[in-house]
User: What shape does this take?
Amino acid sequence: MTGMMFRNVRLFDLERSEGMSPACDLRVKGGKVAQIGPDLTPEPDEEIIEGHVNLLMPGLINGHFHSAVNHMKGRLPSLPLEVFMLYECPELEVLRPTPREAYLRTMLGCIEMLRSGTTSVQDDCFFVPAPEPEIIDAVAQAYTDSGMRARLALDQPELSELEKLPFLRDILPDDLRHELSVPTGAPASALLESYAHLIDTWHDTSDGRIKAAVSCSAPQRVSPDYFAQLDDLSIRNDLPFYAHMLETRLQRVFGEVCLSGRSLVRYTHDLGLLSDRMNVIHAIWVDDPDLDLLAASGASVAHNPNSNLRLGSGVMRWRAIQDRKIPVCLGVDEAIADDAINMWSVMKTAASLHTLSDWDYERWPQAVEVLNAATQGGGTAMREPGLGTMAIGAPADLILIDLKALPFVPLNNLPRQLVHCELGQSVRLTMVAGRVVTRNGRLQTVDEDAILAEASAVFAGKQNAMNLADKRVEKFLPYYREMYLRAGQYDLPVERRIDHLAR
Assistant: This one.
């Protein structure tokens, strides 16, 4: 691999009051940051990238994502998660994708992320109606071709709807109760075979850029035995473990009525499965004992503020989590729970949302904290040493930001302007593992125009199938609404929504 040198750049450095270093040079070799200093001497055959005194910083890390619905942006109104999931991912044969469809929808997300400076992603991908080797391959191939760094997991429940949710068993009429008592996805044995395929075929490929992860979707969606088998996979291969926990009020109520008063965090701890490999996704409806368990375990929290607002889930306890030094990463979640796959937007919301949850303004999120979560915090969650930093030996996942662009003119405070003013329009170059993958907003790795034209045509042809799926799940809607309303009326010792202020 030919080396590269960024010449005359200012390096992102949150330890400095300005947020960046004086002008210097940075050399990349073997896909890693190799040397930093003033006036480095170019080496033979080294490509020189002129920085023009602009900002070179780590690429952003999308710490939680579901690529399977990249083609569905804008399709659903804001709905509470449990109702939303009826329409988002029903396990219906009519929604089974072809490998090409899976490739295209994954590539749509890659294009949007790389253009705006997101270089790494943790894809907690679900597969409808169940994983197949050809579809797993198509998703992984898209990440490979795009040039992104990715962790890929199979987000698949194995239990029936009646086992995953409270109240439904009592609410449903007999015929629908019977229908929802039968698991519709793949059994644990088949899911473990799918993981064997993912790990054997794709883990640590493309010079380590593509790696596997594991996912239980959520603790209440799998049996304790399968949960433990996934943890064993995580241990044996040193893989991050993704688990949605306490995203909604209803999930807190589930613990009260279905787990003998234990929260899902406590339940996971009691199973012996809470660890520093785990990404606890959302963690909104947590109490102090939950946070103490998370802190003691070393688990990371994946914060998805745009999704939390879009689905009305609630406001995460940002400062309580930071005070316990629990690692935090930031995520988009998915293209129909955020609608843009843009980490700058996520940072802006993370920095603004939590002003509503603490009267003491000195405890509100600071721009430096948010930037750390979007870079180093993501690297920690991905279990990639040095990722999200610019230390010598760190992966050369870098973005060049034009400081002469409007978000930075005039330049008053770099960290705040990165968080509150930038939306990705000032990214002039994106590098992953030492390879330039975008220049001036265009991918260098694939034919963007051809991909977008094909995706537009292919997914226009899927509208009838998606509409048919909607009609097939509509019969459940009144009962899911009743379940949701019951959960809203259930007395809890915690509150994470602000609508109670208007009551």
